[in-house]
Structures are given as structure tokens and as C-alpha cells.
Amino acid sequence: MSSILLHAPALIIALPLLAAFITPILGRFNRKTISWLATFVLGLTLLLTIFVARQVLTNGPIVYVFGATETGLILPFGYTMPIRIIFQIDAMGIFMGLITAVVAFLAAVNSSSYMEQHTGLDKYCTLLLLLATSMFGMELTGDIFNFFVFFEIASISSVALIAFHSTISGEPAEAGLKYMVVSSISALMVLFAIGLFYGQYNALNIATIARAMQFTQLDKIALILLVTVLSMKAGSVPMHMWTPDAYSEAPAAITMILVAASQASLYALFRIIFSLYNVTLNTVAVGWIIIILGVLSMFIGVTMAIIQTDIKRLMAYHAISQTGYMLLGVGVGLAVLTNPAALESFGIKAMEGGIFHIMNHAMYKGLLFLTAGSLFYRTGTRDLNKMGGLAHNMFYTAIFFIIGAAAIAGIPPFNGFASKLIIYESVYQFNPLLSIIAMLVSILTLASFVKVFHSAFLGPQLEVYKSVQEVPKSMVLAMATLACIIVFFGLFPDIIVKYIVHPAVIALINQAHYTATILGGI
Predict the structure, then answer these.
(1) pLDDT tens digit sequence for 285-327
(2) N or C terminus of the chain: which is more exposed, having fewer CB within 10 Å?
(3) Among 389-398, 414-423, 486-495, which stretch is predicted with the lowest mean pLDDT?
(4) Which uninterrupted H or E stretch holds 22?
(5) Model confidence over 430-453: pLDDT tens digits?
(6) Is the pTM of this model over 0.90?
(7) Cross-strand pairs, 65
(8) Count of Cβ atoms closer than 10 Å to residue 429 Cβ
(9) Are the C-beta atoms of residues 266 and 508 closer than 8 Å to each other?
(10) What's the pLDDT score for residue 522?
(11) How many helices (DSSP H) and strands (DSSP E) are in the chain?
């Protein structure tokens, strides 16, 4: 047992990766066991992630070296030179790992019943496991080329999952093609940026590059490329063109994990800015760029959502809008990073709100997409104009939708209110207008979801849906778990912020500690 726990960082990657290769073989013998295997492995991975999180939050960052007990060559004055693949797991990385673990596990639980109506279960589970593996890799690695590898695996598996229902209609294939083009361009630009770093500093380890960073013209080009690409993969306006199609056409459980995958790219954006560049940046200028992207995402996302009649497309635009809150909070923290008084007064709080919103968004947006998937599962349509009165027969789904809608609109006592309130208060001290815009977007969000609830669940029971029943128990269980998390985070936000969110923020802004964990020295 002690050996297993010692190698938990590697097992978080290895278990779902191994299961991904086993599922096609298992599918030839017993189809029913495939879902159970995926669920069991992702459940075990969740437990390992919780264990690693406890270790990191209690004892500090974990450095795990693959294939060796040392990080690399010992140099004078207490420094080292990394020469192997290294996982560097700090509070921010494991924060994202927890989100991935929870979302992937519940996606597998939900899929066990959902996929009974479809063929290709072995391929579906393989791709789901590969996507989860790649997300963990992106969040835990300390090596920028290793990040690129996992980034590519995530893109490839996401394309296949988005297009999974292409045999039913052509739209999923079109959405998958769009995402493939975006991902291919993104991967090329990331690889080009990595080449710029390697050509200058002869290193791929993030801490090593950060310590050697001279902020040359090539470094500035790399920064522009990485900020653009990772913002696009996170679904930020104006690079959001792939998000509505991909989110709306993928199966509901996959859409939920695609949201978390977008947030993994958002994490990578923050990691690049804070851990790789940080002290060499003009933080005010870059901070305002992030703030502007956030405001655009909030406003354009919500205004586009209001006019939608496809329930999943509507939720996809709201996902873009909610990403804006994360960018706004972290952008404000970055803009005042070099001003100790402002950072202490409201900068860290703004970042806590933005980072906390990442977790909250993954939970309530996952719940909302699962409710949309439940409606599609029973009615066969995503068109709100063809729905009505479904609360009569789908009571649990209706309740879970109300919880998710209240959370995304920032209504107490749900988790969205907790993180949005932190953002409102802290951002107001930076610029009152930005806080007012954020509150206006929340009002429009509430109006949008009132329309959805009225169209789908209220009114007389339509004749065509009188025989509709509640979704299977496993789908209800996945939604109920997310609903419980949403309520718990909303009732006890101080606990989450103090023990999980605040350490993640401090780990993100403290570049010196990040580099010293690997390289030693001061």
C-alpha cells in the first residue's frame, strides 16, 4: 500500500491510460463490463487524486521523477538541472486535478446508462479514458514539451468524442472537423513556442526556462502565441468559434468533460503567465489584456445565449460567458501583481474568486449539461420550442436544473453566488465599471435560464411526452452528486477557499517557490 501511495502521481496517469487500452479487448468478450471498468478506474483515480491533494496541501509541492529518484544533475550552489520527465504538483495543479477527477468519474457514471442506446461503447470509453489521462497530464506536468504531448492527446480524443454521434446526423462530424482544425493550428503554435524556448535556453522544464528567462523578442513572440492559443482552447471571445458547435453536438457527459478540458487550457494559460514569465512581464498590460478578454467573453457569451432555441447551444454560449468571470478575476490579480498594497488589499481576493469560479463552473455547468442530456435522452430533441411540461414526468431532472440554473446565475445559497460575490467585491475596488458589467451579465444569465425552465419544464403536459419517464438511476446519481457539491460549496465557501482555493492562488503567484522546488537555491 505504501508503494502505491508513493507512486500515486504516476498512477493517476497510468491507471486510466492502461484501462483505455484494455477496454477494446474487453469489449470483444463482455460489453456490459466496459462501463463498469471505466467507472471503477476513474473512481480509483479520484481517490488517488484526493490522496495526492491531501499530501500537497499538507506538506507542500510534490516532485515526481519518472524513472529515477533524482530530478537531474547536481550543480554548484545548490542548484539542479532537470534531465528527466518530471511531474511538479503544487496546490494549483492538484486543484485542477481534483476538478478533472470528479468530472471524469461522474461522466463515466452518467454514460453507463446513456450509452445503452448506442453502439461503440468500447470506443467511447477508450476515448473518455484517454481524455481524462491527457487532462491530468496537462495539469500535473512540470515539462512544457510533456504538456504539448498531453495537449495533443486531449485534442485527438476530443475530436472523436465530439463527432461520436455523426452516424445520426452530419452536425457532429462538422463540429468535430471545426475542432480538429482549431486544435491542429493550436498544437502547431504551441510547438513553435516550445521551439523558441528550447533554441534559446536548451531546456524544456518550465522551472528551468523561468529561471533563465531573459524576455527577449523571441520570448515575447512565444508569449503572444501561447496566450492566443490557450485563450482559444479555453473558449474565450473572440477565439470562441469552435465552442458552440462542439459543446452542443457532443454527448452530454462528454460536453461536461470538454468544459473541464477547456479549463485545463485556461489553467495552462495562467501557468504560463505566472510561473513561466511572471517577474519579466509588464503585468499591468498583460493583466488588462486578460481582463478585456474576460469582459468580452462575459457579455458576448450571454447575449448570444439569450437568442438560442437549442438548449445545449444555449448552455455552450453560457460556458463562454462564465469563462469571462475566471479571466476577469485572475486578470485583476495579474494587473496589480507588482503593487504589493493593491495585491494584498483586493488582488489576491480577485484571483481567489476567479480560481474558485473555475471549480464552481465545472460543477454547475456539468450539472446543466447533464440535465440537457437527460431531456434529449427522453425526448430526442434539443429544441426548446418542441418541449414543454416535462416537470410532470421528470421531477428530479427539473429540480437539478433549477439548482444548476440558480448556481450559474449567482443566486444564494449555491456555489456560483460564493465565487461571483468574491469577484464583484474585489473587482469593484479595482474598477467599479467592471464589477457592474459582471453583475449585469448575471442578471441576463438568470433571465436566459428562466426562459429555458419555462419552455422545457412548465406548462401543460404535451401529449407526445405523456409516456416520458425519469432517466435511469445512474444518470440521476451523477446529477445528484453534482447538485450536492454545488449546495455544499455554496453553504460553506469559506472552507473551500481557505483550504483549497487560497493555497492554489498563492502557489500560482509565487514563481520563486515554483522554480526553487525543482532547481533549489533561493
Answers:
(1) 999 999 999 999 999 999 999 999 999 999 999 999 999 999 9
(2) N
(3) 389-398
(4) helix 8-27
(5) 999 999 999 999 999 999 999 999
(6) yes
(7) 86
(8) 16
(9) no
(10) 47
(11) 22, 4
Backbone angles phi, psi at 214, to 5 degrees: -105, -5
Give domain status of residue 15, yes or no.
no
Domain for residue 53, yes or no? no
**Chain position carrying cell 440521476:** 476
Instruction: Judge whether 501 and 356 are in contact, CB under 8 Å.
Output: yes
Residue 335 belongs to domain spanning: 282-491
**Structure confidence at residue 303 (pLDDT):** 94
Percent of the chain at pLDDT exceeding 70: 94
Residue 500 falls inside a structural domain = no
Q: And the C-alpha cell for 436?
A: 457592474
Indicate if the pLDDT at residue 81 is higher than 90: no
CA separation (Å) from 367 to 213, 241, 276, 383? 42, 23, 34, 19
List the grid coordinates of 313. Answer: 447551444
Question: Which residues have CB under 8 Å from 106's CB, separation 6+?
Answer: 253, 256, 366, 478, 481, 482
Residue 188 lies in a domain: no
Number of domains in the chain: 1
Residue 118: its pLDDT value, please? 74
Average pLDDT over residues 61-79: 66
Q: Are 71 and 82 in contact (CB under 8 A)?
A: yes
Q: What grid cell was written down for 39?
A: 467507472
Residues near 181 by Cβ (< 8 Å), separated by ≥ 6? Answer: none
What would the grid cell of residue 175 be? Answer: 463540429
pLDDT at 24: 86
